[in-house]
Structure formats: structure tokens, C-alpha cells
Amino acid sequence: MKKLLNGLAKFIAVIVAILFVISLVLTLFLYSLEKTAFDAGTYKEALENEDFYGRLPGVIGDQLVTTMGEDENKQFNFSKYLKAEDWEYLITALISPEELQKLSEETIDETFAFLNGDSDVARISLRGFKERLASDRGADAFLTFLEAQDPCTEEDLLALENYANSKEMVFCNPPERAMNFLEPFLRSQLRFASEKIPDENIFLRKKDLGSEFSEFQSLRVLIRLSPIIPVALLFLLTLLVVRSLLSWLRWWGIPLLSAGGLGLIVSLVAGPILQSRISSALLERAAMGVSGITLQLSHDLLSTITSRFVGNIALSSLVITIFGLGLTLGGVFVKKSEEQQNRI
């Protein structure tokens, strides 16, 4: 009867050990995902690695051109004649890298405040950019931009003088004699362009997400509690079969070694799969108002974040593998020691 019970206990222990390995690997995946996705440091590191602050002016410029191209307002203003590279030049002159970094970090803070339930909306303020665009700094930046263009021809100057009637804007480097009428004109047009830009842009709104957001938050709580499952299974495994140092080393070492090794394999396979899914998701769900360069930057940032996520899984799996290997080798050593003592 005792042998039967011991055999049954070992059989159940094997099942529990298998469940432990599976649950631990899933926990590594889910816990690393939650930790990576909701850690502000993840995104700040990604922004730095992808030269975000250097690329952002070009992204904003391209997005402004895309947005203004969809504007149904028929009133003419020179902003509609600016190309993406023109906006990039102006934005770089108007906003320093330090200001861009501050704006980006504020956006990250807004996003995490929203995701953590501290705010019902996540917004980005454009008021500072609007004020600089309509200020002397904006006018000086645009004049510097014009100085970088080819010299104005007589036809160009005539077009500038008759802009109010022709509604056609040209960009060229005007002579000194043209600056008396051109500078006030540019200032008024910059003020007009700044008025078209909203004070803030709300990019996340809880009421727009509905019940999906609540379900998402509940899922995060479950992910945080997921380590309880493998710990409970390991405790059950201990109660079933651990009766000595040797049995403890074996019944802990082999499952931990298996879970760590499987986790390493998952980390190697997950990287390419997630990269492919990111590309597909951006192509399938990209809104029509999002420019290509914006999507490219989003792809690069998500790829960097994915790499960190996979790296966290690999590191945790490696630690578990080493620990499990140590216990397993310890079991082999204890077994040999016991055999030697029995011979004596």
C-alpha cells in the first residue's frame, strides 16, 4: 500500500512539475511584458537609442504636411506651400533638443498617467510651439530659412508683392530692399499659421475606449499576480515528494533547469515573431492621416522596446537555468556522496 501511495505521489509530482515548467515560462513572458511595457525607462531608452529627438522635427514636419493636405479650409495661407523639409527646418530652429526632450517626457508621463488610471485623458501641449511660431523667434527662423534659398528673381519678387491677389507663394532669398514689406507680411502669416494649430492634442481618451480599457487594467492585475501560480505548484511539488536533501535538489533542479532552458528558446523565437507582428499591425491599422515617416519612427521605437522585452525574458531564463543547473549538479554530487558512504 505504501509503495502504491508513493508511486501515485510521484506520478502526480511529475504532472505538477510539468505544469510548473509551463506556468513559469508563461509567467516569465507575461511578467516581462508588463514590466517592459509600463516602465517609463523603457521608452526613454528607446527614444535615445533611435535618435528620436533628432528625427522628431522631420516626423512633425511630415505629419503637418499630411494633416494640412487634408484640411478642407479653402482660405489660402503660405503654410500650405511648405514642404516637409521646410517644416523640419523651421521646427529645428524653433525648438531646441532640450525642449523636444521635455515635450517627449511630458508625453510619456501623460501616457502612463492615463494607463495607470490617474487621468481620463492623455494630451500633448502645443501651446509653446504656437507661441514661438508667432513670436520674433519664429519670424527670425523663417527669415533664416529664406536666406538659405536661392536668390529671388524679379518674377519671384513680383509674386511676393502680389501674393494677396495671386494666392501663390514662392520661397527665395529676397534682397534687402524687399525686406521692408516682406518681414511684416511674414509675421502676419506666421501668426495666421499658429492659429490653425490647436493648443493641445488629446491622443488618448478613456471614454473612447469603453469597457476595453477596464478589461485591459484587469488583465494587468492578473499578470502581476501570475508568479503566484508557479510558486504554488513548486510548494505542492515539495509537499508531494521532497523528503531529503537529494530529493529536494532533484525535484527542484530538473524543473527549474527545464523551465529556464525553455524560456531561453522562447526568447529566441519570440523576437522575430513579434517584429513581424509589429510590422503587420502598423500596416493594417495605420490611420489614413498618419504619415509614412511617422509610421517608420513608430516601427523603430516598437522594435527597440521589443528587443528589451525579449532581453528581459532571456536574462530571467538564464538566471533560472543557472540556478536549476546548480541544483541538478548538486543532486548528482549528493548522490555520489551517499553511494560512497554506503560502500564504506
UniProtKB/TrEMBL annotation:
Organism superkingdom: Bacteria
Transmembrane parts of this sequence: 12-33, 221-246, 252-274, 313-334
Keywords per UniProt: Membrane, Transmembrane, Transmembrane helix
Descriptive protein name: Uncharacterized protein
Lineage, opening ranks: Bacteria, Bacillati, Chloroflexota, Anaerolineae, Anaerolineales
